[in-house]
Design brief:
The protein is mostly helical. Helix content is about 45%, strand content about 5%. The chain is built from 13 helices and six strands. Helix 1 packs across helix 2. The C terminus is likely disordered.
Amino acid sequence: MAYRAFYALQGLSTRDHQPTNALFGFIRMVRQLEKQWRPDRLVVTFDGGAPAHRLEKCPAYKAQRPPMPADLRSQLALIDEFLAAAGIPMVLLQGQEADDVMATLAARAAAAGATVRLATSDKDLMQLVDERIRIVPPTKTEEEMGPAGVAAKTGVQPAQIVDWLALVGDTADNIPGIDGIGPKTATKLIAQFGSLDACLAQAEQIESAGLRAKVQAGRDIARLNVALMTLDKDVPGVPDWAAIPPPAPDFAKLKAFFEKYELHKFAAELAAQAPAPPPAPPRPADGQMSLF
C-alpha cells in the first residue's frame, strides 16, 4: 500500500521538504478500510526480507526489483509512528515476507471463527480465499472477493491458484512460468486436468503437440514454482490471533502527528470524530467535601 501510494501521489511534502505522499496515501487507505468494514481487529504487516527456503530454491527470487527510492524509505518510520498513534498492531519479522505473515494470521483467525479480509492486490493471496477469508482490493475498499470472485477473475478455484500461477509464473517476484503459457492457456489446462500434478502426469493427453511439448519441457520449472508460491501458514514469531488487540487510537498523539506532518485533512476529520471530554464533576455545596 505504501509503494502504491508513493507512485500514485506526487508532490506531497511538508514545508521542511519531508516527503509525505506514501504516508498520506497509506493512511487514507487504512481509514477507508476501517470505515467500510469496521474491523474488530486490524493488523498491518511488512516484508522483513525473502525467506531462506525460497532463496535456496531460487537465488533470483525477487532479485530484479530496484532498490527502494530514498523518498519512500524516509517515510517508513513515519508510517510506523502513525500506526503507534493509531493503536494499530504491526508485524515485521526479519527473513519473513508479509504474504506469509498474512497467511498465518488469516488461517489462525479463520480457525477461531473470524471473517478475514486481506487488503492486497497480490495474486498469491488468492490461494487463501475460502468462505471465511476474502480479499479486498486496496484501491476498491468497498469490494471483496470470495471464492466465486477468484473463479471469475482467473477461471480456477482458490485451491487451484498455486497450480495456475506455477504454469504462468509471476514477473513481480521474478518467477518465470512455463515458456509460452499465459493465463488463459493455464486456465484451460487446469480445467482439463484438475491439477498441475495431473497435467504433468498426463501431458500426453494434451491435444496440441506444441503445447504438449511446452508442458513436458517445463515440468521442473512448474514444480519449483509450486514450492516458491505456496504460502506458509505457520510462520514462527507471528502472534497468536487471541493476542492481537483491537485498534486503540490515542487521539492526542494522532492530532499531534497530523499537525507535525501537515496532514490537515486528517486532522480535521479527527477533530470531528474525537470523543467528547468527560463531564466535569459536580461542584460540592458550601461546607461539603467530595472525594473522587
